[in-house]
Amino acid sequence: MASYILRRLLLIIPTLLGILVVNFALTQFVPGGPIEQTLARIQGQGDVFGGFAGQQGADAANTELLGPGDSSYVGAQGLPPEFIEQLEREFGFDKPPLQRFLSMVWDYARFDFGESYFRSISVTDLILEKMPVSISLGLWSTLIAYLVSIPLGIRKAVKDGTSFDTWTSALVIVGYAIPGFLFAILLLVLFAGGSYFQWFPLRGLTSDNFENLSLLGKIGDYFWHIALPVIASTIAAFATLTLLTKNSFLDEIKKQYVITARAKGLSERSVLYGHVFRNAMLIIIAGFPSVFIGIFFTGSLIIETIFSLDGLGRLGFEAAVQRDYPVIFGTLYLFGLIGLLVNIASDLMFVLVDPRIDFEKREG
C-alpha cells in the first residue's frame, strides 16, 4: 500500500503541471487582460467590459492631443507608450511567455503564489483569509449530507416498496429537482428578513460583536450565521447520496451471501450491519471526493454570493472577471491539489472499510 500511495503522490506533480499549462495557454488568448483592466480603470470605464464603444471618440481626441502610441491594448490610445511599458514590467508581461510560465512553476513548487494585481496583498494571505468560509460550507454540508443520507438510504432499502419508501422518494426527488440557488433564495425570503420571518442573519459568517462574545456565544453565533448556507448547500448532495445508498444496499441484500447469513439464523440487524453494510458502503465512500469537492468549490460560488459570504468561490470568480492572474492560478493550483489529495484519502478509506482491497495487486 505504501508504494501505491507514493505513486499516487508522484502523479500529483504532472497533473498540477497540466492544469497550469492549460490555463496559462488559455490566458494568452483571452481578451481583456490585467493591463487592459488597469487602463480601463484609469480612463474611468470601471473595467474592460464596461464598453469601449462609447469612449472611441474621446480616445481619438486624446490621441490627437498626446500623440499616437504603439500599444496594441484596447483603450490605450492617448496614453504615453512609456506608461504602457511600465505596466508591462509591473505585471511581468515584458518577458516571453515561456519564461513567465517557468518562473511561475518554480514559484508554485515552493507555494509562492505571488501578489494579487489589484488587491496589494499576497495570494497566499488572500486564500487563507477566505478559506474559513469555504471550509465551513464544505465541511458541514458534507457531514450533514452523509449523516442524514446514509441512515435514510438504509431505511429506504429495508422498507423498499412500502409507503415510507414512496413518500421519502418523493421528497428526495423534489429536493434534487430544486436548484441550489433557488432554494437559497427561498430560505432567505422565508427566514432571513424577507416577507415572513427574520430568524437568521442575512449576510456574513459572524456578527459585528463576535470578538466580544463568550466562547459559547461565539459558537452559537457561528452556527446561527452558517445554518441557512449549509442547508442550501446540502440539498442536492443529500438527495443524490440517499438514492445512491438505497440502491447500493438493495444490490447487496439480493446477493447469495446475505441469503446464506439469514439461513444460519442471524438476526436481520446482524445481517444488515455485520455483512451488508461493509460491502454496500464502498460505493458511498467512492463518491465522497466528488461530493466534498462539489460542495467545497463548485457550489460555493452561488451560495457565497447569495448569502454575502466572502469565500474562495467569490474570490475565484472576481479574479476571473478582473483578470487577476496570480489569484486565478493560485486558486486553481490549490483546488487541484486538494482534489487530488482527497482522492488519495478516499482510497485509504476503501482499505479501512474493507481490508481485503489491495490496490497494488489490482494495478499489477
How much β-strand is present in the residues? under 5%
Helix content: over 70%
Q: Indicate the CATH class of the largest domain.
A: Mainly Alpha
Provide the residue-averaged pLDDT. 76
What do we call the CATH topology of the largest domain? MetI-like fold
Helix count, DSSP H or I runs of 4 or more residues: 16
Structure description:
Helix content is 72%, strand content 0%. The protein folds into 2 domains: 33-110, no CATH class; 124-363, MetI-like (MetI-like fold), CATH 1.10.3720. The protein is mainly α. It is globular. The chain is built from 16 helices and no strands. It has helices spanning 2-27, 34-42, 56-66, 81-91, 97-109, 123-158, 163-177, 180-191, 215-253, 256-263, 268-286, 288-298, 300-306, 312-322, 325-353, 359-363. Helix 6 crosses helix 9 and helix 9 crosses helix 11 (268-286).
Q: In terms of topology, how is this protein built?
A:
Blueprint lengths: L1 H26 L6 H9 L13 H11 L14 H11 L5 H13 L13 H36 L4 H15 L2 H12 L23 H39 L2 H8 L4 H19 L1 H11 L1 H7 L5 H11 L2 H29 L5 H5 L1
Describe the structure concisely:
This protein is mainly α and 364 residues long.
Notable characteristics:
364 residues, mainly alpha, MetI-like fold, 2 domains
